[in-house]
């Protein structure tokens, strides 16, 4: 049996327990060198997300009928990432892949560029850092276009705690809940300290945000139970802070609100601004829209616990796309926060298990997305390698073959629709859009399409430039990926560089302790009227079909430091068991 057939049998055969390494090294029936086999299998798993894409786009499997998806990714790995196929020149496996070398190479280059990497070395560094080509997607390489800084080793994820200004102050919490904590100036020293150390770091970008050691648990504290403190990842605090809500904005909409982290953050920021400016109003000024009625219940409870009932009106079951922006009810809305469902690829922990992702043979479907609505899809892996041990694919589960590319394309179409819909609100002058995705398709590409839209040009929407951003985020150094921002149509006022610099990205594992995240602001110049040269707005987005696949909603997990869980776990004083 060749090296590749042996590797394929390891990847698709029954697990049998033990680590991947021990299973290879202890298997005396294998003919290939264990070191060679282990390197091939583990590296192919790491690169499989990208290799899957290359194989699918080259249509290799529809031509080479004898190749299985596993063999295809193994061979593509050696052809594209190593020195070539380890087999005799006339070996049928070698021939089956080398005759497609040119096309595979071209698709490999495109896949690299789609992820925003200018060189193979930068892509390799990111894949090594993140342990996979899926996680590296769209990151633009950690620091690649910034300062070439690639962290040498991953640091643990801190616990982030947001102080809720509706109920308390940072000073009060430092004197009570965190009274016996020492302070450190740097996040790195906090993360390098023993996990039991009572230490905190006051964040330098987001006001009222604290970093605590990864294992710190506050869910039993009075402050947590009464909503004085909220567990919320740092990146998740960017959108409300970037929107910078002020009394002059009038009313605000949080269009995709549940479970309510960003809604309550908006309320906290706004109440602080009101307090400082002496503006007082008893009227609610934030509309929290949530399409999913069950999730809206969690939202309501979160709003209540945060003490924000007097500021927030929850519209349970309300689809933002079904709201008429011209209706007078919304006439006072000056700012909109959009944090829609996304692929969730930036969420730490969700994708920690390295997975073998295999290509589909169904290239016809790849070329033409199905029109079926709302089909939820499962994971696209066949085998899962957990902590180095192989878990065979569940026998009773259909193995869906849809590609990530199609998921991203339907998600991004939906995300764009939401932005264009927000642009239609008569008095809106600020929109913030965010995702917990690392994919450029859901981030910079959506921004460019939004800026190129008729409605943006007609109503004079542009990006919120870096110099106009709140001070903490102006200082944030990781910006949008330049190459992913190309494609601005002529006539748009800002350059690609300005747009990329306006976008903010959070990277996993770059030492800042965030999940993978993207956020951008749009602003509208109300001093000049609409551009009537352009065709009148048809309002068409509201009538469009829903997206095919909804993607992840911000499933909040106390273990991962994302506020309360989507199952509705709230600070009741009793810990409920979460469903896994
Ligand atoms: C990523 S989550 C939002 C997380 C929330 N912003 C937070 O920070 O807690 C996306 C939410 O948007 C909701 N959603 C998706 N499409 C929507 C739409 N068209 N109108 C209203 N809500 C929508 C989903 O049900 C989901 O609860």
From TrEMBL:
Keyword Repeat: no
The keyword Hydrolase is assigned to this record: no
Domain of life: Eukaryota
Active site as annotated: 436 (nucleophile)
GO molecular function: RNA binding; RNA methyltransferase activity
A GO CC annotation given for this chain: nucleolus
All copies of domain SAM-dependent MTase RsmB/NOP-type, residue ranges: 149-525
Region spans: Disordered: 133-154, 358-401, 561-580
GO terms of biological process kind: rRNA base methylation
Keywords: Methyltransferase, RNA-binding, S-adenosyl-L-methionine, Transferase
List of residues binding S-adenosyl-L-methionine: 256-262, 290, 319, 339
Pfam families: Methyltr_RsmB-F, NSUN5_fdxn-like, NSUN5_N
Residue ranges with Gly residues bias: 133-142
Recorded family membership: Belongs to the class I-like SAM-binding methyltransferase superfamily. RsmB/NOP family.
Protein name: SAM-dependent MTase RsmB/NOP-type domain-containing protein
Lineage of origin: Eukaryota, Fungi, Dikarya, Ascomycota, Pezizomycotina
